[in-house]
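User: Working on a comparison across species. This one is Flagellar P-ring protein from Neorhizobium turbinariae. Can you predict its structure so I can line it up against the others?
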Amino acid sequence: MAAIALVGALLATAPAVGQTNSVSARIKDIASLQAGRENQLIGYGLVVGLQGSGDSLRSSPFTDQSMRAMLQNLGISTQGSQSNAKNVAAVMVTANLPPFASPGSRIDVTVSSLGDATSLRGGTLVMTSLSGADGQIYAVAQGALVVSGFSAQGQAATLTEGVTTSARVPNGAIIERELPSKFKDSVNLVLQLRNPDFSTAVRVSDTVNSFAKRRYGGPIAEARDSQEVVVQKPRSADLARLMAELENLVVEADTPAKVVINERTGTIVIGADVKISRVAVSYGTLTVQVTETPQIIQPEPFSRGETAVQPQTDIMAMKDGGQVAILNGPDLRTLVAGLNGIGVKPDGIIAILQGIKSAGALQAELVLQ
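Assistant: Here's the predicted structure for Flagellar P-ring protein from Neorhizobium turbinariae:
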């Protein structure tokens, strides 16, 4: 009930019936440029300088092989030698290559342990090449690791907070290769809505065309589907300047009615456009409590008897609720007030919403997480 009460408090100013629940937003806030997407990079490397918290070379043979290969590349022979040091850990290095990144700029990288290392705190990532999906090397990473978690261990107790086998290297990678495609080589702009919706896509297209008629003398945008809006580049326009002008246009964004439920945490999020048909709901819970209170029976003095345990069990059943309520949700405020009026907890409200959806009275999409 606290979750529903919170929703009702946050939406105390919800619009009345018949009013639109659209929100005004800039195009840059509701859409992204298809040519401006990020690219994922990945690499395999070694972390050195750990204080005995690295991989066990016997349990992680790939760490030993990688360390030997690295030393051989540095001109150090490792034939016939065997190391039991636990100061090295094999890691996977990942990063996101931002759009329009140029060689020489830096990006953050994430380092994750691949073997049985217990902590990466205090380690340093050795030069690691980062490749894209095409197999080309786009960046090289190296630097000291920043670990947010910590672990302390004694003979009889262990304290761990956060994750010690994952770390970040801020500005740890240098971009060495730029993407083959250039932004200025594009013949059009493709805007992708972050929340696909036909109404929003058409409104974006109409807003862009209204601006283009005043600036360029004709329409340039077309809504391809619920997610993509294609903008043709006018001959006299500069592509970067055109995008800068369009991304600040204000559009009335619309979203479908949804109810999002997380049964693990008891979180309930109800959208502003959610409505339910007139429906009667009865909710009641049966609680059975079993209490064991065994009694110790001692023998009488000099009776040569034995101490015995006599079991004693108390069972109590309680039934709460059971009242019938009429729910009719023409708007969000009425729906929240009706659910709060039943007086149930969030887990009960989740069951009620699922039942209303099964009855066909919930006019919204029910999303279970």
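For your comparison, note: The first helix runs from residue 2 to 10.

User: Helpful, thanks.
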